[in-house]
Design a protein that fits this description.
The complex is a heterodimer of chains A (about 120) and B (about 110).
Chain A lengths: L3 E4 L2 E4 L4 E8 L5 E7 L6 E7 L2 E5 L6 E7 L2 E7 L7 E8 L11 E2 L3 E5 L1
Parallel strand pairs in A: 2-11
Antiparallel strand pairs in A: 1-3, 3-8, 4-5, 4-9, 5-6, 7-8, 9-10, 9-11
Chain B lengths: L1 E5 L3 E5 L4 E3 L1 E5 L3 E8 L5 E7 L5 E3 L5 E5 L4 E6 L8 E9 L7 E2 L3 E6 L1
Classes of the chains: A mainly beta (about 120), B mainly beta (about 110).
């Protein structure tokens, strides 16, 4: 299995809802990432997990809460989001763990989030 | 500090003509450089990467890039464009030997005319 899967593909939520995004990889990769991508912009790094521990949090608001239950799974819990949080949320994984600059990132197809 | 500049926001070519997407980088350390492609409503896919081995790097789908340290450039080329190449292309730099936080360029939209 050489892919990163993300569910759901699309999500519409109100500002008072709580929802979660899920990301899964079965390539044995040691690092996993969450990115946010607005239209016509590059991805912005949000969080990095290395060996199942949070290693980087790029000053993301607390309404976004990541979780790494095991080495294959990465969740992003969403609560009290704002309309400006509407974006494509991309998950990625890489083989060697954060700290290896030569690592290739493998991206999932993303979850298109709309906050009403 | 590191940064990457994609010199063109849009590049328009005719099918069958060469493609050139330009990328300049700035890095205090030996960089690793990547080109990713993103088709509409899809994730990113690696085209090729440079990690201090051969300076001419060949990637998938006929793309290649040359690392030129003297010019701090890593331009992406393809001899003959295909309609399926129409997509967004991102140049990415990461710092060799340090914490891996990739820096993305703003992206170049490649338009291919029939």
């Amino acid at each position: 299995d050489t892919e990163v899967t993300q569910t759901p593909k699309h999500l519409v939520m109100g500002m008072t809802n709580k929802k979660s995004l899920k990301c899964e990889q079965h390539m044995g990769h040691r690092a996993m990432y969450w990115y946010k991508q607005k239209a016509k912009k590059p991805p912005e790094l949000m969080f990095v997990y290395s060996y199942e521990k949070l290693s980087i949090n790029e000053s993301v608001p607390s309404r976004f809460s990541p979780e790494c239950p095991n080495s294959s799974l990465l969740n992003l819990h969403l609560h009290a989001l704002q309309p400006e949080d509407s974006a494509l949320y991309l998950c990625a994984s890489s083989p060697q763990g954060q700290g290896s600059s030569t690592d290739t990132q493998y991206f999932g197809p993303g979850t298109r989030l709309t906050v009403l | 500090a590191q940064s990457v500049t994609q010199l063109d926001s849009h590049v328009s070519v005719s099918e069958g003509t060469p493609v050139l997407l330009r990328c300049n980088y700035s890095s205090s350390y030996s960089p690793s450089l990547f080109w990713y492609v993103q088709h509409p409503n899809k994730g990113l896919q690696l085209l090729l990467k440079y990690t201090s081995a051969a300076t001419l790097v060949k990637g998938i789908n006929g793309f290649e890039a040359e690392f030129k340290k003297s010019e701090t450039s890593f331009h992406l080329t393809k001899p003959s464009a295909h309609m399926s190449d129409a997509a967004e292309y991102f140049c990415v730099v990461s710092r060799s030997g340090g914490s891996y936080i990739p820096t993305f360029g703003r992206g170049t939209s490649l338009i291919v005319h029939p």
